[in-house]
Here is the input.
Amino acid sequence: MAAYIERRRTRAAGWARRLGAFSLVLLLTAGVSRRYGLLEPSDFFLVARLVAGLALLALACAAYAFSRFWNDNDLGGRDLSVGAILALAALMPFAVVFCRAIALPIPADISTDTADPPALVDSAAGEEVGAQSDALVSDAPSSTQADIDPAIRGRRYDLSVDQMVEVANALVARQGWIVRTDARRQTGEKEITIEARAATPILAFPTDIAVRVADESGSAYVDMRAVSPYGGYDLGDNAALVADFLAELDTEIARRPEAVPPSE
Here is the structure.
């Protein structure tokens, strides 16, 4: 009578599938919660670290299960394959962020004036943004931001400060940003700063924005700053935000009959 040897099923394959599925579901849940403001950014980053750890553990279990599957002919090939695919899917956003951080080593504080960036007095980050970010912008060489996009420069327009503030306020409102300061000019003031808060498109991370309009011999000079309170890098989002806003500002001013081309 022939003996029949029952093939064993490795437990690591089942754990790979469970951990891979849980890490992906946890990532999606955290992402949706962050998008709709149910999860604070700092808490989201903690959950993201947990997701990365679980996904890596799932891959480790899948690798061990594969070695048992290949060498000892154990069962569990489907479970380890599903677990590895789910874990890799959960790790994909981390890989994208890592690649962008290498390709775009841009600080999270972008300003058209690196020597004297517009102040963020009423930002939600408070003194942390006001002190630390000022130091980051001041310490960064101007070529670092200038090389990102030549459009990240201050603008001078042949308009009064009041007219320029009116245009800037309308453009800020059109972007859907939340205005955090009263932009009315007081008597004798040479400059006025409009502070607002924007949000990233997918995960709604906050970005503090300051648009400064200064009176320079009857013309208006505009500087802009965008700061991400969380994280040291913004993967180029703030640079794009500043460049796009200034480009729209140029277009809006060009439509005015009294406007002249902007200068630096």
Q: What stands out?
A: Residues 109-254 form a domain with the TATA-Binding Protein fold (CATH 3.30.310.80).
